[in-house]
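Amino acids appear as letters; backbone shape is given numerically. Here is one record.
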Amino acid sequence: MWYQEHVSLYGWTSFRVPTTAAYGAICSHPEELPYVHKLLPLREHPVVVLGNGSNILFATDYPGIVLRPLFRGIHLLEYDEDTVQVEVAAGEPWHEFVYTCLRNGWYGLENLALIPGTVGAAPVHNIGAYGVEVSQFLEGVRVWDFTTEQLCWLPAEELLLRYRSSILRETLLGKVLVTHVRFRLYRRARPKVDYPELARFLSDSGIAYPTAEDVFRAVCAIRRCKLPDPAHIPNAGSFFKNPVLPLSVAEELRQRHPALPTFPHGSDTVKIPAGWLLEQCGWKGKRIGNVGVWQHHALVIVNYGAATGEEILRFAELLWRSVYDRFGITLEPEVLILPREAWNPSSR
């Protein structure tokens, strides 16, 4: 285990903002977790757990402890005729895990290829893309409880998984650390290709009967074409969630905005693409100082220079305000903003 006071978080998040934490710690093995309690003042300071920091923005210096688990390992626990149960350590890179599944004939996650971050973060944010969410294959997580100083098991039904959120991101944030994630995957490929953008790409590529490998390659190609690589251009992917609205509200909006796109979400709700809303407000490719919106995707805020967390936050509030003023829709950040009270655009 490594730890230090006054740690720079510049290289710890994909936004690469010049912030610091009162304490930073890295654990390589779950067996080191009891030592965290001996070495760090956990009861006196707030705690945040980082994977690759690809879905977080520190708006200011963090007055607490930032803890990074680097646990590795992929273990096949059991299998039957149709499925396999796999347990994965939290520090495994997500995309590499998806590729490993494909190579081993464990299917279901290929639509989630090339999502940055670690396996441990996947259930926290209930990551999803191209018609698939991780909750569809999640059996549960093993967590270290900072209060009881013990490992415990949380089944998927207790995680309150919903669109881009879970109890791990809300009430349990800073109270537990995910050490392992358990999945139930298929042994026979069941390619899911009904997401319009993915279906269009496969059709344009002349692939009438796509395999799981075809889906994996297509998703990677689409993401590389439209999203900036955080290793070269600092960003945290989609900054806002796609708003979910009642059907009646969406129909009222369509009366004023006939081109408004919607996607089914439930029996009486639809999802509106936040990127489309921002593009209609003129944000695609727009830049103010060190911060801007990616030229190929209006939902991605990028750090073009030495932007601070505060600059990115204020820029995001401008986007929020423009959508609210034009459409009456309140956007909710998908990126986790710390401290949480920093995000309050309606008060400005």
Helices lie at 33-39, 94-104, 121-125, 196-204, 212-226, 247-256, 274-280, 309-327. The chain has a mean pLDDT of 96.
